[in-house]
Structures are given as structure tokens and as C-alpha cells.
Amino acid sequence: MTYRYKSEVRTLDYWLLSMYHTYHSMIGVCNLVLFGAAVALLVRFWGEVNVNVRAFLVAFVLLIPVFHPLAVWVQARSQAKATPQDTELAFGEPGIYVTLDGKHELIPWNKVKGAKREGNMIILFTGGGHGYMLTDRVLGKEKEEFYDYVKRHVYASERKNPDKKKRQTP
What we know:
Helices cover 51% and strands 24% of the residues. The protein contains 5 helices and 7 strands.
């Protein structure tokens, strides 16, 4: 079986991934506590403070639900601009065939460090902080079937290579 996809990662995809990681971690819990504290301060002191302090309290309340996502969006936009958009990936028995700018490369399954479902995408880790993101938009209805296919190949190469570190496949 062969799967073929064109990796099209948009700014929105990077933003969603970053927000997913933030709010599924201790940082997200801290953000929610900080937001609650900001709202409590705003409500408690609104009638007792001058206009400057009110403006500060309003800005403090908007920090988590408005300014943080905007900052993440700016970062995601720069990541998307740095990502090549014409990458074609073909998945077959020998490994992953990557085509970019007319150049071809085969990444054998034993070089794939793992695969992980993250929010609206599947991420394939190829080592050294590198990998490929395939969004639900690209995968369509084949997402689960494709993920099972990748897991089978990653685990099979792990069994052939028991010296390798534990992979990142959940």
C-alpha cells in the first residue's frame, strides 16, 4: 500500500498546534489561573481605582485570551513562511519518499523516530528536531488508516533494531 500526500502546513496549523500544546500542559493551567485572578482583580477593584489602573486591569484581563494568542499567531506565521510548501511525501514499504524542489530522498522506516497524533494532525519525527506534519485537511478520511500504517512500520523497524531508543509513538 502506498500513501501520497502534499504537505501543506499553514499558519493556522502551526497556531493550532502551539495552542494545543499550551493548553494541554501546566502552562495552560497557569494561564487559566492567571486569567481568573485578573478577572477577580478587575471585578474587586473596578469602583475604587482611577482610570489608569482600570486601563491596566482591562489590559491584564485581555493578556491571556487576546494578546497571548496574537503573539502565538505572529510566531506561527514566521514558522509557516520558513516551511517549504511544495513538499511531497510518499509512504511505501521501504520508507518515506520525500520530494522537494525536484530533489528526491528516501527516509527508511528505521530512521523514523516516531509518529504522534497532535490535535488536528499527525507528526512524523525523523530525528534531529526534524519531522513532517500532515494535517487532517491533507489526510482526509484516511487519517486513522494512515496512522495505523505508519505505526506498523515504525514498530516493525523497532523490532528489527532493538538497540534503538524508545520511539515517540503513543
